[in-house]
Amino acid sequence: MAVAVAVSGCGDPDADGGSGGDKQPYVALISKGFRHQFWQAVKAGAEQAGKEFNVKVTFEGAQEEGNVEQQIQLLQTVLDKRPDAVGFAAIDSQAAGPLMQQAKDSKIPVIAFDSGVDSDVPVTTASTDNLAAAAEAAKRMAELIGHEGKIAMVVHDQTSVTGVQRRDGFRDYMKKNEPKINIVDIQYSGDPLKATDLAKAIIAANPDLKGMYGSNEGAAIGVVHAVQELGIQGKLKIVGFDSGKDQVDAIKSGLMAGAITQNPVGIGYETVKAAVAVIKGESVAKTIDTGFYWYDKTNIDDAKITPLLYQ
Q1: Residue 63: is it exposed, middle or buried by C-beta count within 10 angstroms (0-12/13-18/19+)?
Q2: Distance (Å, whole) CA 81 – CA 43
Q3: Mean pLDDT across 92-119
Q4: Nearest to 134 by CA among 124, 126, 142, 146
Q5: What percentage of the chain reaches a pLDDT higher than 70?
Q6: How far is the C-alpha of 116 from the C-alpha of 126, rounded, in Å?
Q7: How does DSSP classify residue 12?
Q8: What is the pTM of this model?
Q9: In whole angstroms, what is the distance from residue 277 CA to residue 127 CA?
Q10: Pairwise CA distance, residues 180 & 254, whole Å
Q11: Rg of the chain in Å (alpha carbons)
Q12: DSSP β-bridge partners for residue 49
């Protein structure tokens, strides 16, 4: 099985892992994926913290973001190296349960990032408040379509905490606040090609659709590509999540109305920072809110937004 692995500039730790003696502490991060620009930005933040706090940092992710089995294998390999701390962004919030227990038994602290883990083992979670962020996306969508009409959702998965919360935060806002808006379909894929096909099928079944929400970079770009391939630019309001180059370009061109940007560099940085604190025996907050913003054509060049966009 092919495994996409990247090691930070800090270098790979010795095979027997752990800090031991005078070695630098070793912090290993396992993300949900590696190819998306979002994860590259998280990696950059982790590496920045690694240099600042003088710790060795590795960053690995599944080749395909939905590949739970591959992610579990990566986590097992990392735990076998006995790092001083592990950062983990779960694809499936329950599948890693046994390995969380292994980490606990081995006295390896776990820092959850981006996506929580269905376990009491992680000492903290560094992430966006995804429920609040998705509710903000829903609020903006409602405004864009005049508070009535049919909309649909393409959600990146239904197993991770981020997938569930970005679905539920959006859907629950509409149920509570927008009685004239009808969510006619919710489909699942964070792969741009698959999301494109799903979005095209939804649009074909609902020709009077007024808007569509994509819950991460891949899902949102899939919706954009569907609109382009069907030649219906301007007829459908698209709201996204994340802020990679393709989404930034889509917003600037008018294909996408706007999106929620997280702080991916901050997520990586805060994960390693928290790991360093735990290694030193310091206490950390149970959750670390790394923040979010809505951005569109009107504020995409604002000083508070541009540092959160990643290329």
Answers
A1: middle
A2: 20
A3: 93
A4: 142
A5: 93
A6: 9
A7: P
A8: 0.83
A9: 17
A10: 25
A11: 20
A12: none
